[in-house]
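Hey team,

Filing this mostly as a record. A colleague (T.K.) asked me to run one chain through the structure pipeline before their review meeting, and I want the input and output archived in the tracker in case anyone asks later how it was produced. No errors, nothing strange. Just documentation.

Input sequence:
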Amino acid sequence: MLELAIVNTVSTTVAIAPSAATAVHEGGKPSIFKGKERQLAQSNPPPPPTNPGSSSAGGRRNPAKCPQDAGAATPSALLTALSPTTKPGFTVAEHPTFLVYVPKTSAKQAEFSLRSREGRGVYRTTLALTKTPDLIRITLPVQAPPLEVGKSYTWSFAIICNPNDRLDDRFVTGMVQRLALDPTRLRQIQEAPLKDQIAFYQKADAWYDALALLFQLKRSQNDPNINIVWRELLQAGGVDTIIDSNSEQANPR
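Output structure:
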């Protein structure tokens, strides 16, 4: 049985200054596992320079299938960034992990990129699509510049439908911002069992960190309660809860 700490307070945080992040989050912010949260507005990030798309809550996306992939675009078959759309996407990690659901496609490559809010490129990599549909994990490598506390970043994932015409790309984007957390407290969290870490990160409002650990736990344990928490975490962030995590294609390093 998955035993997670439950916090029932209501979220009222809209923005957190880097200098106040530790004090605010140590005070016990809400858990998305239980309780009613206030939906937070998030401004639309700019799309990648070569990828046109339409605006949507929390980001821009063009989630339709590649032109060569005929078939109905059902909700479970759309390219989906696991990034909050109803609240800010926070992390305490210098090099966070991102998750993307890639539907069945004949495309052979995809591209992940991370940019500052001002549009400055931070990291970019190309991935081989060898097995789809799949839930792909991309971890920012240690060689990449670490995220700066208090700054917002836009990340994007594009399926390269036609390498000769990148205007055919199908892409999704998300937002991420790094929070400050007391180093001693962070070390205590990282040394705790995985189940406890998920709850601790949720209390700190670190959505990306909680999701990455939950994904890891979900793949290693056959526990129905983990699936329930997975769906609740996605739902609280406004992400499609149909997405599963039984398969993974890790990013190249």
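Quick notes for T.K.: The radius of gyration is 18 Å. The helical segments are 21-26, 183-191, 194-203, 207-220, 224-236.
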